[in-house]
Amino acid sequence: MLNHLFELLIGFFRAGNLSFGGGGSIIPLVKTETVNTYHWLTLSQFSDAVAVCTSLSGPIATNLASYIGFRAASWPGAVIAILAVIVPTIVVLVWAGKLLEKHAESKSLKAILKGVRPVIVGLMIYVAYDMALNQATGAFLLKAPADAATLAIAAVAALASFKYAVHPLFLVIGALAAGYVIW
To answer: What gap in Å lies between CA 43 and CA 126, rounded to an integer?
Structure first.
């Protein structure tokens, strides 16, 4: 059990320290730790966890940490994973917040931030692609086939999000209802 707790501490500390650019940017890092490094979940299980954790209120980082931590080592695992993912952010915000505020107009800082954003977008696209392939093979826990209805739900959600700025909550509720009716 102590070994699992230590691995959760290291894995989520790494993910929390290396994620940059918003909540979704942590997903590829957590996937690497969870699926590839420590094997706490399979890719299929991780895809399901992301789907569930995204539908719940709260930050995706803490939702994933609590779920995966609990799966790996019960309640102590959930607590360790949550602390490991949020403590680095708290430390950075408290200690470095003033420094970042002081240099907010710095050309160097702006250049660094502009350079890192495309990497975050690329990582998020990779995870979405990986999860879509997983969906296409029917590997999700619920075994929803990648049929016309699945593709239609994805297309409608993308269109509603991009073109009409529909709030993600409504997209999730609509997808839940569509899944219930269709399958």
So the answer is: 13
Residue 146 clears pLDDT 80, i.e. is over it: no
In our burial notation (b when 16+ CB lie closer than 10 A, e otherwise), range 87-119 reads ebeeeeeeeeeeeeeeeeeeeeeeeeeeeeeee
Question: Which segments of the chain are extended strands (E)?
Answer: none
Range of the domain at 63: 2-115
CA gap 71, 60 in Å, rounded: 16
Report pTM.
Answer: 0.63
At residue 109, the pLDDT reads 81
Contacts of 120 (CB under 8 A, 6+ apart): 20, 21, 22, 25
Q: State both tokens at 30.
A: 């957590």
Looking at the structure of the chain, the number of domains it has is 1
Asked if the structure places residue 138 within a domain, the reply is no
